[in-house]
């Protein structure tokens, strides 16, 4: 599948929040999101994302790209961390493909969550366990 095809598939979110914030929420989601997008908060969140991806790479071959065109297969831990740092600095998306599971994960430099496209039940179970181990939550958005 192409990146564009994955983006059209059903998806789940790995987030600091346990469920989707309703559009009519009485809270101040956007102000709190802005706070978490600042340093050092975003660095802590992205470190958790890196930990999940590194642990996931123990089970699955992964391809990683900052632009959706040039890919690195099974990057070293430092290369993966550098790719995420580059995506943050360049305000780009980081794309991760789990080859055997036919799943794509994205990290957007403007978000405090990761998105998992086209996940299988087995993949959801594994990634969900890894998210919990990092103190994060996984949920399916209301469409």
Describe the structure.
- α3 (41-57) packs across α5 (121-133).
- The protein is globular.
- Helices cover 39% and strands 21% of the residues.
- A hairpin with a 5-residue loop joins β5 and β6 (114-117).
- The protein has five helices and seven strands; from the N terminus they run αβααββαβββαβ.
- The model has no long low-confidence stretch (mean pLDDT 95).
- The chain is of the alpha+beta class and 143 residues long.
- The longest helix is centred in the middle third of the chain and has 17 residues, at 41-57.
- A seven-stranded antiparallel beta sheet has the order 3-2-4-5-6-1-7.
Protein traits:
single chain, 143 residues, alpha+beta, seven-stranded antiparallel β-sheet, 5 helices, 7 strands, globular
Q: Which regions are unreliable across 5 or more consecutive residues at pLDDT < 50? A: none
Averaged pLDDT: 95
Globular, elongated, flat, extended or rod-shaped: what is the shape? globular
The termini sit apart by 23 Å
Main structural class: alpha+beta
Percent strand: 15-25%
Count of separate DSSP helical elements: 5
Range of helix content? 25-40%
Largest sheet descriptor: 7 strands, antiparallel
Give me the strand/helix succession: HEHHEEHEEEHE
Total strands: 7
**What Rg is obtained from the alpha carbons, in whole angstroms?**
15 Å
Write the layout of secondary structure elements.
Elements: H1 3-7, E1 11-15, H2 29-36, H3 41-57, E2 62-65, E3 72-73, H4 77-89, E4 93-98, E5 103-108, E6 114-117, H5 121-133, E7 137-139
Antiparallel strand pairs: 1-6, 1-7, 2-3, 2-4, 4-5, 5-6
């Amino acid at each position: 599948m192409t990146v564009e095809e994955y983006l059209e598939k059903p998806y789940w979110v790995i987030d600091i929040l346990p469920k989707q914030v309703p559009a009519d929420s009485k809270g101040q989601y956007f102000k709190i999101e802005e706070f978490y997008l600042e340093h050092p908060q975003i660095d802590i969140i992205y470190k958790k994302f890196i930990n999940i991806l590194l642990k996931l790479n123990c089970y699955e071959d992964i391809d990683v790209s900052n632009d959706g065109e040039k890919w690195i297969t099974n990057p070293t831990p430092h290369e993966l961390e550098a790719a995420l740092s580059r995506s943050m600095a360049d305000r780009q998306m980081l794309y991760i493909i789990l080859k055997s599971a036919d799943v794509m994960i994205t990290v957007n430099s403007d978000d405090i969550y990761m998105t998992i496209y086209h996940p299988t039940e087995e993949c959801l179970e594994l990634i969900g366990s890894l998210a919990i181990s990092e103190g994060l939550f996984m949920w399916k958005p209301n469409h």
